[in-house]
Every structure is written in structure tokens, then in C-alpha cells.
Amino acid sequence: MSESAVIKTNATSTVGRGKAFTSHSKEAEPSNWSDGQVNLFVGDSLDKYDQWAKPTTIISDGAYGILGFEGDTSDHMDLPDWYEPHIKKWSEAATAQTTLWFWNSEIGWASVHPILEKYGWRYVNCNSWNKGKGHIAGNVNTSKIRRFPVVSEVCVQYIFEAKINGQILRDWLRSEWKRTGLPMKKANEACGVKDAATRKYFDKGHLWYFPPPEVFEKMVHFANTFGAEEGKPYFSYDSIKPMKASDWEKMRSKFKCPHGYTNIWERSSLRGSERIKAPKTNSKSAHLNQKPLDLMRLIIEATTDEEDVIWEPFGGLFSASLAARMLNRKSYGCELDPDYYNLGLERFRTPSLV
Ligand SMILES: C[S@@+](CC[C@H](N)C(=O)[O-])C[C@H]1O[C@@H](n2cnc3c(N)ncnc32)[C@H](O)[C@@H]1O
Q1: Do the beta carbons of residue 15 and residue 68 sit within 8 Å?
Q2: Which of 102, 105, 134, 229 has its C-alpha lying 20 to 30 A from 1's C-alpha?
Q3: Residue 326: what are its φ and ψ, rounded to 5°?
């Protein structure tokens, strides 16, 4: 058997490369911090999730399989095990409105995707952050690496699959209508359309559409007026009253695309004053993986409204929590390394650092 065909069973080393500084200060150990809107924790996020309000959006920027920080794995094959306990916790806290943004390399994401699916996360779209040629600045010897230089990362959008009475929405809609005893085509009359209801809302496969809330309400009204008496109420999740348009609206994640955006995000890598510097060096980047605030703002604005809750389980310098605060969202962030935690916290205490 060739070496590459051997399936790896043990996790490899997780000693990170490239930590630019270590604080040897004798100051008291860092502790959690909150201003009532942003809540930052130091330690392992796995121990903190139970204290956090339910998320509208989770922004995951954790292990990449490149030894990028202490605790990162040395290759992508260890990533599924690394992420699984977190993904399990996210699923327990998620609602039908929750979006997950999963940052990673292409191969890192590909290895974790089956775990995300297993816990109820449904793939929506893969966005690529193109950092441009400036990211490599001509420093790559392609005859040595024998591939094209990588100047991108992905940020993949997932939604949490909503269920009512154990059924995904598409199946639940059909089965509720069937229970009424009314013919399927009567749904068109209920919704005031020619054939869109049976074609779109009762499709059994990928052509299924989520009925707009006002259309859903018409369907519900019709079913509860003309459906068989013994099965009422129809389209109810508590078996007491039928759902309203406003209840139905909460059964899907939020999404607003700002004008002109596509799934390719052209944005140079973080440089200059945007990059937080390691203390006492004034030149070295404090964290290899600091994300641009504008990209964090983009994804937060797209999938949340003001006052909604963002989770940032792998905080680093807490770029997502900072973007959340700028947009008047609440956030819960956690960072394992006290040095990064302290430096990240400074961004909230000293606005000029942002
Ligand atoms: C890719 S970096 C995040 C960078 C961040 N997005 C930023 O803009 O600064 C991942 C961070 O997660 C932290 N981390 C890893 N495992 C963690 C865990 N279980 N709980 C909390 N933080 C963790 C690492 O120390 C590292 O700083």
C-alpha cells in the first residue's frame, strides 16, 4: 500500500507556528468581559456555549489544518474530529433562522462538510475571498511547489434545516395539505395562483420553494376553512392554533444581498494600519489569521438584523464581534489563548486600534 493510501487514525501535532508574541506580564489572569452588547470569553468555547443566547448567525474561523495557531492541526484530515464537538453544540443551539458562515481553505471545508451535513447544516453557497496577486508578492517558487499559488480562502454559507414534528418543511407542507383531504390542485385556488402552488410549494425535490409568508397564510386559512373537520387545526406546530405569516417567516434564515455583490469577494489581504501589531514590535502582525472587518460586516449584515445575536467561537482578535458591535448586533465571542484574548479586547476598549 502506498503511503498516501494509509488512512490516518491519530491526530497529529497541534503546535502552532507563527505566534508573533507571548506576554510574560505578571498582570492578573484575563477574565470574561461584557458591555451588555458584546460578551467576550477566554478559554475553550466548548465550555461556554451553554451560557450564550441563541445565535442568528455563527461565524466559524477555527482550525485550517495548517498549524496556523496553537491547537490548529497539521493537515486537513484531522479537521473533522477537531470541529465535530463544536458543530454538535451549534446544532443544539441553532434555530430555523440560524446561518453559519464557515471560513476555511477549500480542502479544509471539503473535509468538514460531511460533519456539518450530519448535524443538520445545509449547504447554500461557497464564497471565495480572492486576496489577489499582492498576497504572494512574487515570493512563490512554482517549480518547487508544483501548483498554482493560493491567494484565496472560502467562506461557506450554511443554514440550519428547520423541522416541524420531525419533518423538513417541504415534507411537512405536503403532508399537512394531504391531511385536509382536499385535492392537491385546490392549493392553487387557496393561494390565488394558476398552478404555482402545486408546482413550487408542493414539489418533492430541489424545485421546492418556501412559500412567501402571505401566501402561506392564505393556504392555512383555506385548509382550516375547507379541510376535513376531524383533522383541524392544520398547519399548526402546537396542535392548538394554526401558524400565522409571522410564525412562518421565522422558519427560515435571514438573507439580504447588498447591491453588486457576487460569491467572489475581491479584497486584498489585510495590511497596514488595519492589521493589529504584536505588542512591542510595532511591525509584526499579532495574529496570522485576522480577518478584514469589511468582510465580517458583509456577512453579518446579510444574515442578521439589529439586536440579533452573533457567535464567534474562535475569536482570535474578535473581528466578527467588533463588526457586530459596529452594526448594533449582540455578540458572544471566545478565544483560547489569553494573549490574543487580551489584544482582541483592547480593540473594544481603545477604538483607535480598530
Ligand atoms: C483562525 S483564528 C481566528 C481569527 C479571527 N477571525 C480574527 O479575525 O482575529 C482561530 C482562533 O481560534 C482560537 N481557538 C482555537 N480553538 C479554540 C477553542 N476551542 N475555543 C476558543 N478559541 C479557540 C485560536 O487560538 C485562534 O486564535
Answers
A1: no
A2: 105
A3: -60, -30
* Predicted confidence (pLDDT) per residue in 121-158, tens digit: 999 999 999 999 888 877 788 888 899 999 999 999 99
Contact between 226 and 182 (Cβ < 8 Å)? yes
Pocket test for ligand 1, best of 69, 86, 296, 299 (most atoms within 8 A of CB): 69
Q: How far is the CA of 334 from the centre of ligand 1 (A)?
A: 8
All structural domains of the chain with their residue ranges: 31-162+253-353, 167-249
Q: Give whichever of 100-114, 183-197, 260-274 has the largest mean pLDDT.
A: 100-114
The three cell numbers of residue 142 are 512554482
Nearest CA to ligand 1 atom 26: 316
Mutate which of 314, 317, 342 to test ligand 1's pocket (most atoms within 8 Å of Cβ)?
A: 314
Q: Exposed, middle or buried, 315 (CB in 10 Å: 0-12/13-18/19+)? A: buried
Cα 192 to averaged position of ligand 1 atoms, centre (Å): 51
What is the number of the ligand 1 atom nearest to the C-alpha of 337?
25
Q: Does ligand 1 come within 6 angstroms of the Cβ of 61?
A: yes
Nearest atom of ligand 1 to the alpha carbon of 45: 20
Ligand 1: residue whose CA is nearest its atom 18: 44
CA 299/CA 284 separation, integer angstroms: 28
What pTM does this model have?
0.90
The number of beta carbons lying within 10 Å of the beta carbon of residue 329 is: 23
Written as one string, the DSSP assignment of 17-70 is: S---------SPPP--EE-SSEEEEES-GGGTGGGSPPPSEEEE----SS--ST
C-alpha 261/C-alpha 251 separation (Å) is 25
Which CATH architecture fits 31-162+253-353?
3-Layer(aba) Sandwich (3.40)
Give the separation between CA 81 and CA 118, rounded to whole angstroms.
13
What is the tens place of the pLDDT at every residue in 217-244? Answer: 999 999 999 999 999 999 998 999 999 9
